[in-house]
């Protein structure tokens, strides 16, 4: 007989947003269940080994990194910084970010979720949901090959790809061109201790080889993961020259392209760049990093203008201090900045379904256009939308007014 479970709040996905959402709902005293496809937590932060948290600090050319957010995002970042023994870094444009260790991120997520008594199902995927009128009543999940049904009061889609909207046959925000995917990998035995110099040496060698037709031109989409050079190891991120379409087989094709790109690049670096002469691949991140996917349709859709004009909202639940960062297949990254020291806000209306009362979203599948999500997908903002969605879903489950909950989120985190 199929197992039946009951929960107050169901969270789908244990990435930055899902972890924050589950903790928020648990802090409201509710029974929380989290369903995660992988055998570990962290989502893109750990599976794609992203390596730095952006969107936590003010956009400012000041040396010192100043938080643009309070509450849970800051609490988590402080703990992660301590566990990783890192500190915030910044670039010449005024962008501040926190490097972290992948294992520290994984461990903190699991420790904090256990401390908050969140019921976690690993190796579990959501299959279907049952909707009655304007509410989702149950979710069917398969974990380790075993099906079970979860009865719920409210749920939060933190899958990154609007899996719940898909299962409920709700409209989603799509685009013809998703952001370019990337693969992160780590090399050991690197003979250079200055990260900026290593990046320059590497790019000079790649540029010369491209100009001499030794390498194809997409080899200029190679980046050092900031803050990753330590103990003669460095993580590199390569932009993949294959479009992200989400058509059947696309993720597998991206993985195949990534594998050969990484092997060829490593071989080139070892043969042609002195700092890599004794180097070898230490490991390749388990997942290709897909940046954007389908977004759910909320009561409001965040736009490019909202981001670039630093719009503030009465029902704001998150502060966004990161520019629009666009990665395309045919060139290096491009950034669209707003004014230094300013920030935009994400309203609660981007986190609640336009049609299903008890469905909320957080992280990189909030209700936003492709340009707006190119900013709002960074983890500093995912942590905030995650925590806010957890509070809103808890208020719904407790029959409490949403506007009162929005005020509490504002007091705690903005
Ligand atoms: C290459 C790359 C570089 C990046 N660089 C940075 C950076 O430097 N700094 C920064 O802040 N951000 C960066 N980002 C963006 C950031 O990492 C992500 O946008 C963010 O981590 C998304 O968090 P999330 O919780 O919304 O989603 P995700 O991290 O994608 O988590 C979604 C979770 O849901 C699970 N899931 C999905 N479908 C199902 C299902 N059907 N059933 C069960 N579970 C499911 C997944 O396994 C995953 O654990 C980068 C992203 C990429 C890809």
Largest sheet: 5 strands, parallel
Q: Tell me the total number of β-strands.
A: 22
Taken together, the total number of domains comes to: 2
Which distinct ligands sit in these coordinates? flavin-adenine dinucleotide
Describe this structure in words.
The chain has two domains: 3-175 and 293-413, FAD/NAD(P)-binding domain (3-Layer(bba) Sandwich), CATH 3.50.50; 182-284, Alpha-Beta Plaits. The chain has eleven helices and 22 strands. It has helices at residues 16-27, 44-47, 72-84, 102-115, 163-167, 195-211, 250-272, 304-308, 370-376, 379-397, 402-413; strands spanning 3-6, 9-12, 32-35, 52-54, 89-90, 96-99, 119-121, 124-132, 135-143, 146-151, 154-157, 172-173, 182-188, 222-224, 234-239, 280-284, 295-296, 316-320, 324-326, 334-336, 344-347, 359-361. The strands form seven sheets. The chain has a five-stranded parallel sheet. A four-stranded mixed sheet has the order 1-10-9-8. Strand 19 (324-326) and strand 20 form a beta hairpin. The longest helix has 23 residues, at 250-272. The protein is globular and about 65 Å long. 49% of the residues are buried. The mean pLDDT is 96. Flavin-adenine dinucleotide (FAD) binds next to helix 1, helix 2, strand 4, strand 8 and helix 10.
In a nutshell, what does this entry contain?
This protein has 414 residues and is of the alpha/beta class.
Secondary structure elements and pairings:
Layout: E1 3-6, E2 9-12, H1 16-27, E3 32-35, H2 44-47, E4 52-54, H3 72-84, E5 89-90, E6 96-99, H4 102-115, E7 119-121, E8 124-132, E9 135-143, E10 146-151, E11 154-157, H5 163-167, E12 172-173, E13 182-188, H6 195-211, E14 222-224, E15 234-239, H7 250-272, E16 280-284, E17 295-296, H8 304-308, E18 316-320, E19 324-326, E20 334-336, E21 344-347, E22 359-361, H9 370-376, H10 379-397, H11 402-413
Parallel strand pairs: 1-10, 2-3, 2-11, 3-7, 11-22
Antiparallel strand pairs: 4-6, 5-6, 8-9, 9-10, 12-17, 13-15, 13-16, 14-15, 18-21, 19-20
Bound molecules: flavin-adenine dinucleotide (FAD).
Flavin-adenine dinucleotide is lined by residues 12-18, 35-38, 43-45, 48, 50, 52-55, 125-126, 158-161, 163, 182, 237, 289-291, 363-364, 377-380, 382.
